[in-house]
Design goal:
This protein is of the alpha/beta class and 170 residues long. It has helices at 34-43, 45-52, 90-107, 127-143, 158-169; strands at 6-10, 20-25, 62-66, 74-79, 112-115, 150-155. It has one domain (3-169): 3-Layer(aba) Sandwich (Leucine Aminopeptidase, subunit E, domain 1). A 6-stranded mixed β-sheet has the order 1-6-5-2-4-3, with helices on both faces. Bound molecules: adenosine-5'-diphosphate.
């Protein structure tokens, strides 16, 4: 796999000029706080109208909508696990979020997709373990698929950036 298919940036995912951004949604898909709230705010009210028709989304699964007022053409909404100490299959569910999201990107022939740290905010998943899962699952997927061409991990703060940087070096 070409090395430059993975990238890390620090910043706000809602500003990115990519084909798709991933949302850390909740199972209702009807908005929430954190990155979900920021995405709905930036995408505008039509996003909620589209989400209302989707009938929610199961944990570990993903659904796709338009990007509406965002620069991104699509939003992939995935529902991460709430961290309960690691005894409730949280790592497997998080891995499934990345696989499901990447599969949707592949099916739509999306070239560039940006992920926030799914479950690493209010849902409490440890950031280092979450980043290992994010990078491993993405590498595994890209080895067998030419789409997406590029995956960007978006760190919202310096600590998260450093966590991704260390893992990507390995
Ligand atoms: P979850 O409920 O899945 O934990 P959160 O939205 O609370 O989702 O947090 C997920 C991650 O997204 C956290 O690491 C948080 O720092 C980060 N985040 C919050 N807002 C943004 C944003 N605008 N752009 C990128 N990342 C963000």
């Amino acid at each position: 796999m070409k090395k430059n298919r993975l990238e890390i940036i620090k910043g706000d995912i809602t500003n990115l000029n990519v084909d798709a951004i991933v949302n850390a949604a909740n199972s209702s898909l009807l908005g929430g706080g954190g990155v979900d709230g920021a995405i709905h705010k930036a995408a505008g009210p039509e996003l909620m109208e589209e989400c209302e028709k989707l009938n929610g989304c199961s944990m570990g699964d993903a659904k796709i909508t338009g990007g509406h007022s965002l620069k991104a053409k699509y939003i992939i909404h995935t529902v991460g696990p709430v961290w309960h100490g690691g005894y409730k299959d949280e790592p497997e569910v998080l891995a499934s979020c990345y696989q499901s999201s990447l599969k949707l990107a592949k099916d739509k022939k999306i070239k560039t997709v940006a992920f926030p740290g799914i479950s690493t905010g209010v849902y409490g998943f440890p950031k280092d373990l979450a980043a290992i899962i994010a990078v491993n699952e993405t590498r595994r997927f890209l080895l067998k698929s030419s789409y997406p061409e590029k995956v960007i991990f978006v760190a919202y703060d310096d600590d998260s950036f450093e966590v991704y940087r260390k893992i990507l070096k390995q």
